């Protein structure tokens, strides 16, 4: 749907500035005041200050681009609008008076070319499996390479479902077995020990939601042979577990998108260990993947990708060449010096493959694998099976009314497959 950026910002984003640091609000309001007084210098100076305090915010970026255009700094205007397009390819400045002079430049033509590329329908995937198990809401997925079972985590259902290779589904475990099984978010198979690890978080969309449990999350280790829970740890301090991975030595790493902290645990533990506290640097920690035994790559939904040295725990931002989309990365997977990323915080949503440099600290190019197709509604997580990437294509987050699923709109779970190169 096409709409003007001004309407998008007012309805979708402007209120989200409030609740941030008071200084951001102050500089934002000052910028608008100076603009109304036609003081371009004050408008630009204050919006730059707000943007430095809160990078990558669409409202601030829009005003920054407007201030740059009115100041006739067309290269800077292009660079800022490019950032906005990478977040939302549907933005339009065709009727915005602030950009009248910019629309007369060659840079505006270049911007339109980039926009068409970002909006283009691309589908290098094929339908792998359609799972009819009622109106199920999956978020996480894992694969057992020996038994060929697929495991899905239910957000509303508070359950782990096992899917046979033939597509037959049955509930493996749910909250009736343990009330601390909340919305199931991330899953991973410990192939060596034939166990399934999964993390859960209290969300308003889950069955029997109780606001008194807000901020609770949990981690479980399930023995797949006996069906017994071997490890059970609960966090109760403003936590929202979103994903997990297992290292070669069996350590489980859990990402917490609320506390912006990576925790670790091992089989038999009764408490979590804080492995890396990223508060103050990250805004919404999401997916993780090991590039090798010494390098962990993780995503922040707002600011992109980072690499962490496993030994020293020092981290650095992975930079991107211009015009490469990176906003809203959820699922994250490492494959032959490339990163497979599921972007569900961008418009349109997409699955991409990033090529990294030798130091693994810069994305030098990318390939769009799936983008702007009807079946991509909403992709979340996936798994690698040799050179094949299989992912959840249609997690029904948008089909809720008052935190209850609209059963009439939820479609059977669709897994798509991409053959990687």
Concise structural overview:
The protein has helices spanning 5-13, 22-36, 40-53, 58-70, 74-87, 106-119, and strands spanning 122-123, 125-131, 138-143, 150-154, 159-163, 169-174, 183-190, 195-201, 217-223, 229-235, 241-246, 252-256, 261-265, 273-277, 285-292, 295-300, 304-309, 315-317, 319-320, 329-335, 338-343, 350-356, 362-371, 382-385, 388-392, 400-401, 404-405, 413-419. By secondary structure, the protein is α+β, with helices and mostly antiparallel strands. The strands form 7 sheets. Strands 1, 19, 20, 21, 22 and 23 form a 6-stranded mixed sheet that branches. The chain has a 4-stranded antiparallel sheet with strand order 2-28-25-24, with no helix packed on it. A 4-stranded antiparallel sheet has the order 3-4-5-6, with no helix packed on it.
Keywords:
alpha+beta, Serine Threonine Protein Phosphatase 5, Tetratricopeptide repeat, Neuraminidase, 2 domains, 6-stranded mixed sheet, 4-stranded antiparallel sheet, 6 helices, 28 strands, 19% helix, globular, disordered N terminus
What would you note in describing this structure?
The chain has 421 residues and is α+β, with helices and mostly antiparallel strands. The chain has 2 domains: 5-119, Serine Threonine Protein Phosphatase 5, Tetratricopeptide repeat (Alpha Horseshoe); 122-419, TolB, C-terminal domain (Neuraminidase), CATH 2.120.10.30. Helix content is 19%, strand content 37%. The chain has 6 helices and 28 strands. It has helices spanning 5-13, 22-36, 40-53, 58-70, 74-87, 106-119, and strands at 122-123, 125-131, 138-143, 150-154, 159-163, 169-174, 183-190, 195-201, 217-223, 229-235, 241-246, 252-256, 261-265, 273-277, 285-292, 295-300, 304-309, 315-317, 319-320, 329-335, 338-343, 350-356, 362-371, 382-385, 388-392, 400-401, 404-405, 413-419. Strands 1, 19, 20, 21, 22 and 23 form a 6-stranded mixed sheet that branches. It has a 4-stranded antiparallel sheet with strand order 2-28-25-24, with no helix packed on it. Strands 3-4-5-6 form a 4-stranded antiparallel sheet, with no helix packed on it. The longest helix has 15 residues, at 22-36. It is globular.
């Amino acid at each position: 749907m096409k709409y003007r950026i001004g309407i998008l910002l007012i309805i979708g984003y402007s209120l989200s500035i409030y609740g941030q640091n008071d200084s951001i609000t102050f500089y934002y309001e000052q910028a608008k005041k100076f603009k109304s007084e036609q003081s371009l210098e004050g408008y630009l100076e204050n919006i730059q200050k707000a943007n430095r305090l809160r990078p990558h915010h669409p409202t601030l970026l829009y005003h920054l681009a407007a201030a740059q255009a009115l100041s006739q700094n067309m290269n800077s205007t292009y660079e800022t609008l490019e950032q906005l397009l990478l977040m939302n390819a549907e933005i339009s400045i065709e009727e915005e008076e602030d950009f009248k002079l910019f629309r007369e430049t060659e840079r505006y033509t270049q911007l339109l070319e980039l926009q068409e590329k970002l909006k283009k329908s691309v589908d290098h995937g094929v339908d792998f499996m359609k799972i009819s198990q009622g109106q199920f809401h999956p978020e996480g997925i894992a694969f057992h390479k020996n038994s060929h079972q697929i495991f899905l985590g239910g957000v509303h259902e508070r359950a782990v479902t096992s899917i046979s290779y033939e597509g037959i589904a049955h509930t493996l475990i749910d909250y009736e077995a343990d009330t601390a099984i909340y919305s199931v978010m991330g899953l991973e198979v410990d192939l060596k020990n034939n166990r399934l690890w999964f993390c859960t978080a209290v969300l308003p969309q889950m069955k029997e939601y109780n606001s008194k449990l807000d901020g609770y999350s949990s981690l479980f280790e399930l023995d797949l042979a006996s069906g017994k829970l071997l490890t059970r740890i609960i966090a109760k301090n403003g936590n929202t577990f979103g994903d997990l991975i297992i290292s070669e030595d069996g350590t489980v790493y859990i990402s917490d998108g609320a506390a912006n902290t990576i925790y670790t645990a091992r089989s038999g533990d009764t408490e979590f260990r804080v492995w890396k506290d990223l508060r103050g640097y990250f805004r919404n920690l999401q997916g993780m993947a090991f590039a090798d035994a010494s390098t962990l790559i993780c995503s922040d939904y707002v600011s992109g990708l980072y690499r962490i040295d496993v030994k020293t725990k020092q981290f650095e931002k992975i930079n991107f060449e211009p015009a490469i989309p990176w906003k809203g990365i959820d699922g994250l997977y490492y494959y032959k010096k490339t990163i497979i990323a599921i972007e569900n915080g961008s418009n349109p949503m997409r699955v991409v493959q990033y090529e990294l440099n030798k130091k693994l600290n810069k994305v030098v190019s990318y390939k769009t694998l799936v983008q702007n197709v009807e079946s991509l509604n909403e992709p979340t997580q996936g798994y690698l099976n040799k050179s094949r990437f299989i992912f959840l294509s249609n997690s029904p987050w948008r089909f809720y009314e008052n935190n209850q699923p609209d059963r009439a709109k939820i479609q059977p779970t669709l897994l798509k497959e991409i053959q990687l190169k």
